[in-house]
Amino acid sequence: GQQVMQIPQYQHVQEGEDFTTYCNSSTTLSNIQWYKQRPGGHPVFLIQLVKSGEVKKQKRLTFQFGEAKKNSSLHITATQTTDVGTYFCADRGGSNYKLTFGKGTLLTVNP
Amino acid sequence: GAGVSQTPSNKVTEKGKYVELRCDPISGHTALYWYRQSLGQGPEFLIYFQGTGAADDSGLPNDRFFAVRPEGSVSTLKIQRTERGDSAVYLCASSLSPGSGNTIYFGEGSWLTVV
Fold it and tell me: Would the CB atoms of B100 and A96 count as touching at under 8 Å?
């Protein structure tokens, strides 16, 4: 079945540093969604990318979809302690309803 | 309610027992999903309902798992003869419809521990 790989598995930064997580697939991604899960919480939808080369921004967060639609990234500028959590990418696939999640990147921020 | 509601929030059960997990989706959402999340992993798809029918149950691990949504709203995930490997967070989610333009909202999850 389809696999979505995410790196790194963990990232620890000092508050104010930047952070990037990468999502890759050997097959073409249909559309990529990004979720944030706080410790002990549930996944919360952040954004969806559909078009090849698409770039979207939400305040300090920048999301990119690769030109070949085989990779995506989430970049956080000047991290804050409120950014702590696990960031997941998920491919919606051709089914239009089934999400295939990566394993996530756990971000911790040292104040 | 304002969000997807799941009960119980925590359940500890003995190996071999039967368990039911309940999900109350956001009002008006026709699409309902169950996912399972093990420690350190991303959520894994179990089953998808459109209305009352299970449109895709391909993610259910075996025939000990079953889910229903009899009136097209509340759903129950049923696990028979529980095993220790069933321990995980069971996440329910809903969306207005299954289309890619509709955001999927997750509940807080039911943490199942089989001892």
Answer: yes
Contacts of A44 in chain B (CB under 8 A): 106
Identify the closest residue of chain B to A94 by CA–CA distance: B100
Q: How far is A79 from chain B (nearest CA, A)?
A: 22
B5-96: CATH, from 3.40.190.10, 2.60.40.10, 3.40.50.970, 2.60.200.40: 2.60.40.10
Instruction: Give the model's pLDDT for residue B20.
Output: 98
Mean pLDDT over residues A47-62, rounded? 96
At residue B1 the predicted structure's pLDDT band, cuts being 50, 70 and 90, is low
Q: Do A103 and B41 touch (CB under 8 A)?
A: yes
Contact A36, A82 (CB under 8 A): no
Residue A110 makes CB contacts below 8 A (sequence gap 6+) with: A12, A13, A14, A15
